[in-house]
Amino acid sequence: MDEVQGWVQSSKVISNLSFEKSDNLRPVKSLFAHIYRVADTTPFPPILTIPYGSKVKLNETVDKGERWVQIELVTGEKGWIQRGDIDFAPKIKTLEEMIAFSKKFLGLPYTWGGTSSYGFDCSGFVQMLFKEMGFLLPRDSRDQAQCALFMSVKQEDIQPGDLVFFGKTQITHVGLSLGNDEFIHSGVTELPMIMISNLQSGKYNFQGARRIDPLMVNVYRMNFQ
Q1: Long-range pairs of 196-199 with CB within 8 A, sequence gap ≥ 24
Q2: In whole angstroms, what is the distance from residue 38 CA to residue 212 CA?
Q3: What confidence tens digit (pLDDT) does each residue in 12-39 have?
Q4: Could you tell me which of 109, 100, 147, 152 has the C-alpha nearest to residue 127?
Q5: Buried b vs exposed e over 55-84: b needs ≥16 C-beta within 10 Å?
Q6: Residue 71 β-bridge partners
Q7: Domains of the chain
Q8: What residues are annotated to the active site?
C-alpha cells in the first residue's frame, strides 16, 4: 500500500481471502482491545491485544447492546471482544472531527516506523489521521509535503488541520496544527511520545505548511480508489 519494503518471517504471515472480503468486518475503536477465549475477563488471560483500527469479523453486525460480541480473527480463531471496543458503524470523519480525534492518542510512545497505536512515528501518525478522512497519504514526511492533495500555506496563515513540516536542511518531521501555534505530533525532541508542542518554542526548525486543496479532494480520492 505504501510501497515501502520490509521483511517478516514467513511463519508470521497469514492469507485469508474469505476474511478480507467479508462484509462483516468492523474496526476496533479503542486504542487497544483485548480478545478473550470466553465471554469473561477472569478465567483466562486475553488471547491477544490488537491496536486501534484492526479489523475483526463479527458473527452479527447489528449492535444489540450486549457486553460481549463473538468474533473471528484472520487466523480463523474464534474469540470474544467487549462491545465498547468495536465501531459498529464506521464513517469518514470531517476535518474538525479528525482534529479532536487526534488528541485521543496523546502519550502513546514514539516508535520509528510505527503506524499503529502500539507506537507511531511522525508520518505514520499523520497518515493514520488523514486515513480517518478517507485520504491515503504517502508514508514519509518529505513525500507528504509533496502530496498533490495539498497546497502551500505561509506560517502566519496556518490554521487548525494544516500540516506543519520541520527539519534542519530538509523535511524530516511532520505534525498537525491545532491552531494558536500549537501542533500535535509523534516526536522525540521533547519527549518520546505523541505530544502537543509550540511552533514558537525554538525547538523545531520550521520548513513549511500544507493545507488540503479543496480543488484536489475529489481528484485525489478518485486516483486512490
Answers
A1: 196/103, 196/106, 199/155, 199/158, 199/164
A2: 46
A3: 888 888 898 999 999 999 999 999 999 9
A4: 147
A5: bbbbeeeeeeeeeebebbbbeeeebbbbee
A6: 58, 79
A7: 10-85 (2.30.30.40), 95-223 (3.90.1720.10)
A8: 122, 173, 185
